[in-house]
């Protein structure tokens, strides 16, 4: 399998040194009490801006110890081609950073932070598909000169801006997962079939057999399926027993996603709630049986716009405690992306965009303390459509996380589970398409 070229632009090592005013003044920023943040954007690409907290350092600080990544932008081959095809754009591409003091948020549509200054870093991405490039690493002055409080020193802002190759395998479902589609690998205009998917309903006998096979993997005292509540019989409306198996072109099963906790309407409502989510096991073959690799929980968020809430954790081979890698929301109306991105700070720890319940700050990566230390940086993304739309998930997987066919297939199965969760979390007053309903189902 040949990957597609991608480039990752990262911004990190952020810090501020704000001079102390010689005379007290209400307008002066006092770094000990004023939080600071910045907004980071690429000026001519249609990528959403990102926010990051900026730590304030004492003015006499000589060394910087803040290697965390603050923002990451992922550029595809089409983005790079668009920049290269128009030299007027290529020469103007730059990273723009606006630095504020005060807390993030808006009041009556007006930003509540006070602008300290702006920084612009020109970017020339030519050649970054094959080799890394550093565009800035160090301090830069911001603001309009001497401080109004009487200090002649300017505010100093530290940042590191670099671009690195980030090749990825790109896969596209040729149909909706419940229609048992083929999965193609995409590279430019080339579409090559690599997997087939088989959607089915698990019968009770299948659940028992699978539970026993997994039980043999973990010992007689533990069953993965029963530990995750798959065999609980719950009253009321529910969607259960969905399963999708990914096969390679020889027909061998190489990954699977199995709904192990039914998606059940909360009492007195028509929706799957966060307090009682449905869940999937993502399975990989090993030793003539299925081994659990990851667990996906999903529910329907309340709010102004309904969203699919999700939580994904890896299941270590040596422990029953899962490692949470992602917890976020996808719009049920517009669709969106499921993303596993663990940041890529130079210290090999989880970056600031990692989930709050991940194993942060324990020397995780590189020291063997975290069971899945091979997962770092961008891992995968899956783009899915909203409710009522034909969804053919597009999956991107970082090359560094694919060592064999089974690796890629596990991420494809996870993408299928995310897409099927969009249907599983539909209001129970709405009818599902026939492929998702058994004859005995009573739907809407």
Automatic annotation (TrEMBL):
InterPro entries: DUF1005. Residues 220-229 have a biased composition (Low complexity). Residues 208-242 are annotated as: Disordered. Residues 230-241 have a biased composition (Basic and acidic residues). It comes from the Eukaryota. PANTHER family: OS07G0133500 PROTEIN, OS08G0163500 PROTEIN. This is Formin-like protein 18. It comes from Pyrus ussuriensis x Pyrus communis.
